[in-house]
DNA sequence: ACAAAAAGTTAGCTGCTCCTAATCCCTCTC
DNA sequence: GAGAGGGATTAGGAGCAGCTAACTTTTTGT
């Protein structure tokens, strides 16, 4: 009768959901722009449970009005579900900045710890950290941080490195990878957010890049996850083929 | 089969216990020096569950070798149980200092937030925070912080204010209260740890105190929870009556 | 010392979230 | 447009941690 829920005394919206429920909402939110939306399968992968468990939980979330669902269809958040999800995303990304800047975490270490903390911190904690960090707008991976009013500026003008034409120049803004090894590689290549790059050449299997004078190949698999602000100039990006963007939309 | 435990990838000792189990161990530890030890009833109160639930959980902890138990008797920690409990106490008190010093929490606010965070932070987080704070030895309430090797210096030489004789002088070192209102009162009276005090007089219902020139009465109920380092001098504390100390040993 | 009160325990349930196995239904291909 | 394959769902069950109610043991007060 009095059971397994999160204490969560006096928070504004993030009522009394279990950590588990919160996780589902967050993952659904993050998959919103994914090509096929938030499907049972993909959710199961991301959350680390079996598809059957996802179905069960989605039913419950639907009953609570946090999610809209039709059987065998991808699920979508309602407005109240979205609010909770964005709150969590804000917690997560603020915590990443905090761990990175204040506690000296490496950028490939922040995700895991933030994952655990995001469910547990209070509104007060969130606010104090935001102040301490001067209200950062992006986390160490370049992902935008929702405001305390839960407005999330969508990234327009950002193109995956893999889509740039030869001669394009720009600045790396986001790295949408979560795997630690991949992040380490990106760092070793010197491709952290903020890095200015120029596309020396494109091949079927990758992009040849000029960074600070040196030149190397970035395989397509990586280049799809490096989102770039393009500097308007002599060359322009390839006009994109029809259809929705195929990048995975991580974190 | 794969269930409700804490992820806890690569921590040293604090294996894979549920938050709940960790809570039990911590409370048992904190009650170690209490007059009647860790009884079912008191544990139930502190943890916020019914006595029947405590019995059940203690059985489980006993099976896992974290606790030694005989029915109808107070429970005690084994060495491995103690290690986990002290680890948690270290987390808790470090977090209190962090919230107080870095995030500007009031001292009556730190406990609640630390309670939630202590189960969730990693060894790395613990270590980085400890460094950031220059390895503090006490939390904002004056409670000693176990070292990273889990050694906890016991407080000797500390006497409850309520036991001091007229004319005794000393410095408030610990405030073993957790109720927010009580803590606020103590702060309003200017009795934070570090405050130098002198006992002007003693009554059956309280202690008359001299602090920074002004004089006021501290009711016994409060005075029992203000632990004082006595300055050796003209007056000495009442020789204590036989029997174990009766202070509750909070937090 | 013994009865009443208090504390502790047992038995039986509930809700939560996960699981496996079996079945269902959509979609895509030929 | 019919089936094959794969994703989604249902059914049934497990483990955890809590609960109430009934019972047993210890403690306490006269």
**What is the percent of helical residues of chain A?**
25-40%
Uncertain parts of chain A:
8-14, 239-251
Strand order of the largest sheet of chain A: 3-8-4-5-6-7
Please outline the major beta sheet of chain A.
Answer: 6 strands, antiparallel
How many structural domains in the coordinates of chain A? 2
What distance lies between the first and last C-alpha atoms of chain A, to the nearest angstrom? 34 Å
Describe this structure in words.
The structure is a homodimer of 251-residue chains. Chain A is built from eight helices and eight strands; from the N terminus they run αααββαααββαβββαβ. In chain A, the strands form two sheets. Chain A has a six-stranded antiparallel sheet. By secondary structure, the first copy, chain A, is an alpha+beta fold. In chain A, helix 4 (79-101) packs across helix 5. The first copy, chain A, has two domains: 1-154, Arc Repressor Mutant, subunit A (Orthogonal Bundle); 158-247, SH3 type barrels, CATH 2.30.30. Chains A and B meet through helix 5 and helix 6 of A and helix 5 and helix 6 of B. Chain B binds a DNA duplex (30 and 30 nucleotides) through helix 3.
Summary tags:
SH3 type barrels, alpha+beta, homodimer, 8 strands, 251 residues, DNA-binding
List the helices and strands and how they pair.
The structure is a homodimer of 251-residue chains.
Chain A: H1 19-30, H2 40-47, H3 51-63, E1 67-68, E2 76-77, H4 79-101, H5 110-117, H6 123-132, E3 158-160, E4 169-175, H7 180-188, E5 196-203, E6 206-211, E7 214-219, H8 220-223, E8 226-231
Antiparallel strand pairs in A: 1-2, 3-8, 4-5, 4-8, 5-6, 6-7
Chain B binds a DNA duplex (30 and 30 nucleotides) through residues 1-5, 18, 20, 39-41, 49-57, 60, 71-73.
């Amino acid at each position: 009768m009095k059971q397994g829920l999160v204490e969560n005394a006096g928070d504004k919206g993030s009522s009394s959901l279990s950590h588990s429920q919160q996780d589902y909402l967050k993952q659904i939110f993050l998959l919103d722009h994914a090509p096929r939306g938030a499907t049972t399968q993909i959710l199961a992968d991301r959350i680390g449970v079996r598809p059957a468990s996802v179905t069960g939980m989605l039913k419950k979330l639907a009953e609570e009005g946090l999610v809209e669902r039709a059987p065998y269809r991808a699920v979508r958040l309602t407005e109240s579900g979205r609010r909770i999800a964005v709150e969590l995303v804000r917690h997560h990304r603020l915590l990443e900045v905090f761990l990175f800047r204040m506690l000296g975490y490496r950028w490939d270490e922040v995700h895991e710890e933030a994952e655990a903390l995001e469910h547990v911190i209070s509104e007060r904690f969130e606010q104090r950290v935001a102040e301490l960090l001067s209200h950062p707008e992006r986390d160490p991976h370049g992902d935008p941080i929702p405001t305390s009013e839960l407005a999330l500026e969508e990234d327009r003008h950002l193109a995956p490195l893999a889509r740039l034409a030869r001669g394009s120049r720009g600045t790396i803004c986001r790295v949408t990878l979560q795997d630690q090894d991949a992040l380490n590689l990106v760092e070793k290549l010197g491709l952290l957010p903020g890095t200015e790059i120029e596309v020396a050449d494109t091949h079927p299997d990758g992009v040849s890049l000029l960074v600070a004078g040196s030149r190397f190949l970035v395989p397509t698999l990586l280049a799809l996850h490096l989102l770039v602000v393009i500097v308007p100039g002599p060359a322009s990006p390839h006009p994109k083929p029809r259809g929705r963007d195929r990048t995975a939309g991580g974190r």
